Amino acid sequence: MGRRSDARERLLEAAATLVPERGYHGVGVQELCQTAGIKPGSFYYLYPSKQQLVIAVLDKAWEDTQAYILDPIQASDASPLEKIRDFYLRTYHLHALRSQEGKPVLGCTFAVLGGELATQDPVISQKVKEIFSSLTGYFNEWLTSAYEQGSIALEKEQLPDAAKALLCYTEGTSLMARVHNQADLFERLAEGALRLAGAK
């Protein structure tokens, strides 16, 4: 049992490393198995399909996003607008760590896979939509609190669209950071997110 569990985890780690960098179609099952140190014939014993492995990659990426970015922000005593800023700064620090190790900035795993597979794989596309919806929920929560405190110049009915706009701003920043290999875009554009939120 221990060996099977370890192999499954190693395969997931290999996919979580290679797929966000090269995309779904840029990495084959054989390479994933080679990187994980398992026999190719074991792949479908560990995961029913490459699709399901990538679903697990998305779940892991979302869990990491919550653990390293969202949960600490929620646990802090920061104001709603400070939480929005902190979201971008924490994202910057995670990408900066990769840059310091000489690795490329990958941007957002959800956007990379969602964009690649939006018209090809409805299951993965739906998973990405669910994650984006959850992230939008955080933005909406922070905007609602800011509205109640009178710190943003938005009407209540504008808040849902403003939350979606912050998601779009985030994903656009992620794309540009990936294209230009510049982690500091998240830090430089944090104030722009506050302007988009209607900060007074």
Q: Can you tell me about this structure?
A:
- This protein has 200 residues and is mostly helical.
- The protein folds into 2 domains: 1-47, Arc Repressor Mutant, subunit A (Orthogonal Bundle), CATH 1.10.10.60; 54-196, Tetracycline Repressor, domain 2 (Orthogonal Bundle).
- Helices cover 74% and strands 0% of the residues.
- The protein contains 10 helices and no strands.
- It has helices spanning 2-22, 29-36, 43-46, 50-75, 80-100, 109-117, 122-148, 159-180, 185-188, 190-196.
- Helix 1 (2-22) packs across helix 2 (29-36) and helix 1 (2-22) packs across helix 4 (50-75).
- The model has no long low-confidence stretch (mean pLDDT 95).
Helix-strand layout with pairing:
Elements: H1 2-22, H2 29-36, H3 43-46, H4 50-75, H5 80-100, H6 109-117, H7 122-148, H8 159-180, H9 185-188, H10 190-196
**SSE series:** HHHHHHHHHH
CATH class of the largest domain: Mainly Alpha
Overall radius of gyration = 18 Å
The mean pLDDT is 95
Helix content: over 70%
The largest β sheet comes out as:
none
Enumerate the spans where pLDDT stays under 50 for 5 or more consecutive residues.
none
CATH topology of the largest domain: Tetracycline Repressor, domain 2
